[in-house]
Write a structure and sequence with these properties.
Elements: H1 7-15, H2 24-34, H3 40-56, H4 64-68, H5 82-102, H6 106-116, H7 135-144, H8 154-167, H9 176-190, H10 194-203, E1 206-207, E2 210-211, H11 212-215, H12 217-222
Antiparallel strand pairs: 1-2
Helix pairs in contact: 1-10, 2-3, 2-5, 2-7, 5-6, 6-7, 8-10
C-alpha cells in the first residue's frame, strides 16, 4: 500500500459515484469495455475517452436512456466488441427503468441498485442476468455505485494469494466469494478499505521500469 500513495482519493471518487467527472454513462461504458479483459490503461481508458469525445461531449449521448438506445454499429470506430456493447446497453436500460420507477437521476439509479444488490446470488440479480456481465463486472458496478467491496479478477486473486501465502494466514482465495471475503477480512485488520486493497493489486503491477501507480498517476486523477 505504501507504493500507491494517492490511491485513497481515487477510491473516494469511486465510492461517491464521481469517477469520469461524475458521468454514469462513462462509468457504465468503462465497466462494459473492461468486461472482456483487455489492459485497462492502454486499451479501455483510451477507448472510453474516445467515446466521450465522439458521443458525450457533443451531447449525442447524455443519459443512460440515450446509451440504452445506442446501436452498436454506430460506435464501431470506438470499440468493436459486440459483447461489450450488449453489456453497456443492457445495464443502461435496466438502470434507466429503475430511475424512471423511482424518480431518480442516473447517479441515483446506480447507487440505488448497488445498495440493494448482493454478491451472494449475483447471477439472479437483474444486472447479473444481462448477457456478458460476469461477477467481476457486477462487482465493479457495485463499487462505482458506492459499495466498498472488491472485484475477484485474476490479478486481484494473484496478489492476494501471494500476501496470504507470505503471511501464513491460510485464508481462502480460490472461490470468488472466498476471495472477496478474505479481502474484507484483511481490510478489517489493516484499516484499509476493501476498494483500496482491490485497486492496490492493480496499481502495484509493473509496466516497464515503473509501477502503474507512478506511470498512470495523472491519468488516475482524471478518471
Amino acid at each position: 500500500m505504501s507504493r500507491t500513495t494517492g490511491l485513497s482519493e481515487h477510491c473516494d471518487r469511486c465510492l461517491e459515484t464521481r469517477r469520469w467527472g461524475g458521468s454514469v454513462v462513462l462509468m457504465v461504458v468503462d465497466a462494459a469495455f473492461t468486461s472482456i479483459g483487455l489492459n485497462y490503461f492502454t486499451a479501455v481508458v483510451p477507448a472510453v475517452v474516445k467515446f466521450e469525445k465522439e458521443f458525450v461531449a457533443d451531447s449525442k449521448i447524455r443519459t443512460l436512456r440515450d446509451l440504452s438506445m445506442l446501436e452498436p454499429y454506430a460506435a464501431q470506430a470506438v470499440w468493436r466488441n459486440a459483447r461489450s456493447w450488449r453489456v453497456a446497453t443492457g445495464v443502461a436500460a435496466y438502470l434507466d427503468d429503475l430511475a424512471g420507477a423511482g424518480g431518480l437521476d442516473d447517479r441515483g439509479a446506480l447507487r440505488s441498485w448497488a445498495a440493494s444488490s448482493r454478491l451472494e446470488g449475483w447471477r439472479e440479480n437483474p444486472i447479473g442476468r444481462i448477457k456478458g456481465v460476469g461477477v467481476t463486472t457486477f462487482q465493479y458496478l457495485r463499487m462505482m455505485g458506492g459499495i466498498d467491496t472488491a472485484m475477484p479478477d485474476k490479478i486481484v486473486r494473484r496478489v492476494i494469494r501471494q500476501i496470504v501465502d507470505e503471511s501464513g494466514a491460510g485464508m481462502p482465495v480460490d472461490g470468488d466469494m472466498e476471495l472477496v471475503n478474505t479481502i474484507e477480512y484483511m481490510a478489517g485488520l489493516s484499516g484499509y478499505r476493501p476498494v483500496e486493497i482491490c485497486w492496490m493489486t492493480w496499481m502495484v503491477q509493473s509496466e516497464g521500469s515503473m509501477v502503474r501507480m507512478e506511470k498512470y498517476r495523472d491519468l488516475l486523477d482524471r478518471i
